[in-house]
Please model this.
Amino acid sequence: MGNFFKKVGLMFFALFVTLMLLFVVTLGMLKLFSGKKSVTVAENSVLYIDLTGLEIKERQKNTPLANLPFPGKDDMKKVGLDDIIASLKRAKADKNIKGIMLNAGPLIAGWASIESFKEALEDFKTSKKFIYAYSEIYSEKSYYLATVADSIFIYPQGFMEFNGFASNPMFFKGLLDKLDIQPLVFRVGTFKSAVEPFILDKMSDANREQTSVLLNDFWSYFLSVVSKKRNISTETLTDLANQGKIENARSAVENKLADKLAYEDEVIDLCKKQCGLDAKKDLNQIKLGKYIDVSDEQAGLKVSNSDKKIAVVYGVGDINSGKGGDESIGSETVVKALRKARTDENVKAVVLRVNSPGGSALASDVIWREIMLTKKVKPIIASFGDVAASGGYYISAACDQIVAQPNTITGSIGVFGLMYNSEKLFKNKLGITFDRVVTNTMADLGNPNRAMTEAEAKLIQKSVEDIYGVFLNVVKNGRPGKFQDSLAVDAVGQGRVWSGTRGVEKGLVDELGGLNKAVLLAAKKAGLGDDYQVIYLPKEKELFESLFDDGAEEVKSFILEKLLLKEQKTALQYLQNYNDPRGIYMRMTAVPSID
Model:
């Protein structure tokens, strides 16, 4: 028996040593593969930007698992919009970069991100360097970016999508019915559609109306840009889409959406000619993913050494209490970043970068409070990304100015409560029942294992209505001169979403533009001129911090991506976002996929 325990002890000791060695090796590999790389840009180079399958996030860093060379890691790598814009700014100044070859395959990004990308490409073109766009397949988003190019080439047997925009929301009512789960919904706002997936199997008339207006706003703006870039009337473009006339690559050229049928090698030869290279020599191409690591100094950009700073504070994802991450807004994390910017004497102005559909009402108000404190001591400008709705708009309303892209989704001023009664699920599906003993009538208010009383329902509905009243006042007081009273806010509220363009008309947005414009407005309001540095908060985590904080979540996301269907994953993530302790939210429905 003694030998048995001795052997077991030795086995566990060996396992412990093996795990420790594995841990040390992993850290070493992370160290090796993380951080900035030294990049050399050859003379007469072309910046190669491959959009095919690219997923553009607001702000993205290479996380620990993405840095390691294992199969499937590329599925976890995304590109930050901030990196794209910064890289194009460097490429514009870089004497070794002669132009851009844009492989304009289908990509994954919101329309406001696409707009900011397009603006950066347009700024690059002011350097008189060339941009050639080429693809086998153009989606409407990738084509929109390609319209900036000097010439648009399409593979002879390729295809171009040009048929209008659509939105296809998902509904979970049937799933909840099968599970015997009864959703308990409390809301204010005719257009507050966030609860509809739980109680309906199709869009309400109000939701259909607002989605139709939003889609048409986006489509009209898309047409106006394409019309200007390609010198084709919007009427003609509308007819092309309605009649399905862009059947293949040849029809795209015949209808002037593309310039020429071409193979990739022919486009590469044209790039060589633009770079002054012999046709027999290889084209010097540097991929965007690699060029990201080129420094401002290396590209020839002037770097400010001023101690005056503008802090860009990122708020990306659903709003919840506690700590947040790269794609979630934790009130604790954002408040800490705002407080750091507020108390730093060298920070002269703040830009709040918001890309959020909202979330917890409580967490939104906690962030709003810190913005109010910041506003008292220095300018703060809100910059909207793809979406800044409901709680995302709530936290921004206190800012001095709001800047959004024409195709930002914003507004959704409304509140709802969401709870569940799962009593039948446990009883009918699992044979489990519950009983209760209480000291007071509402001692277990919100208990998901029993039916809610009428008195309890009235109490929660009143809480929702009270918070909606607070929301209206936050907007009215935060945007003086835009709304006379709360009734005026309610007229554009009721949970309705708007495009950035209509947001300006309705008083919800001050100016149209991207993050760069918001930074310039902040600098002007602080009287900084051109003498300032831009810093970004929250700061990226160090290697060890990122490993322990992000590693488990990243593995979970990777497994979900690989093992679950897209619809299952979407439904699971959607349900996970509803975790407010009171069950009261300032959130719009899942962000419309406008494709």
Notes: Confidence is low (pLDDT under 50) at residues 64-76. The CA atoms of residues 104 and 135 lie 5 Å apart. The two ends are 69 Å apart (CA to CA).
